[in-house]
Amino acid sequence: MRSNSDIVSGDEIISDTWDLKEIDDTVYEIDCKKVTKGVDNVDIGANPSAEEAEEALEEGQSTVIDVVDAFRLNFLGDEASGSRLFGTKKEYMGQLKTYMKKVVEKMKESGADESAIKKFQTGAQAYYTKQIAPNFKDYDFYVGESMDTDGMVVLLNYREDGITPFITIWKHGLTQMKV
């Protein structure tokens, strides 16, 4: 198994036990599942049907997103009220620009050539413009276990079906380690 950690914070973000779909050599999108965790019961099956989703959880149970739970990702905001740390695109862009500078520094340190760095920067800008900005209000933001907001902010959204959650992580912001 290979574990992928954020190159800035060192937090484990994902492993190869999940299907990482590479998009434009820039990001990985990973489909997730909602699962029910209980005192003695963990349901790791498929997403519930609409009828099952309406059923009340038993005492001591909670519904979580598998990747968020497995890698101890932390919601940036107040889950009770639904408020997010990045309320505007401008706020998120401030964090993203700082993070991207750090990724570029790490790429240079590891010997990446200028064309690879330029390709990453161009791809990141295109992904932000085409995917993140138009759907900004639909994203939730997470960070790794250390809660380091200078590190990678993991983006969570739902597929077009409105049921399937997926996360987006920056490909070049990861370092891989065999476990």
SSE class? alpha+beta
Strand content: 25-35%
Global morphology = globular
Strand order within the widest beta sheet: 3-4-13-12-11-8
Rg over CA atoms: 17 Å
Helix content range: 25-40%
Helix tally?
Answer: 4
Low-confidence stretches: none
Could you tell me the number of beta strands? 14
Biggest beta-sheet profile: 6 strands, antiparallel
Mean pLDDT: 89
Put the structure in a nutshell.
The chain has a 6-stranded antiparallel beta sheet with strand order 3-4-13-12-11-8, with no helix packed on it.
Explain what you see.
The chain is α+β, with helices and mostly antiparallel strands and 179 residues long. It is built from four helices and 14 strands. The strands form four sheets. It has a six-stranded antiparallel β-sheet with strand order 3-4-13-12-11-8, with no helix packed on it. Strands 2-1-14 form a three-stranded antiparallel β-sheet, with no helix packed on it. It has a three-stranded antiparallel β-sheet with strand order 6-5-7. It is globular. The mean pLDDT is 89.
Features:
single chain; 179 residues; alpha+beta; six-stranded antiparallel β-sheet; 4 helices; 14 strands
Topology:
Elements: E1 2-6, E2 12-15, E3 21-23, E4 27-31, E5 34-37, E6 42-43, H1 50-54, E7 62-65, H2 66-70, E8 74-75, E9 77-78, E10 83-84, H3 89-109, H4 114-132, E11 140-143, E12 154-158, E13 165-170, E14 174-178
Antiparallel strand pairs: 1-2, 1-14, 3-4, 4-13, 5-6, 5-7, 8-11, 9-10, 11-12, 12-13
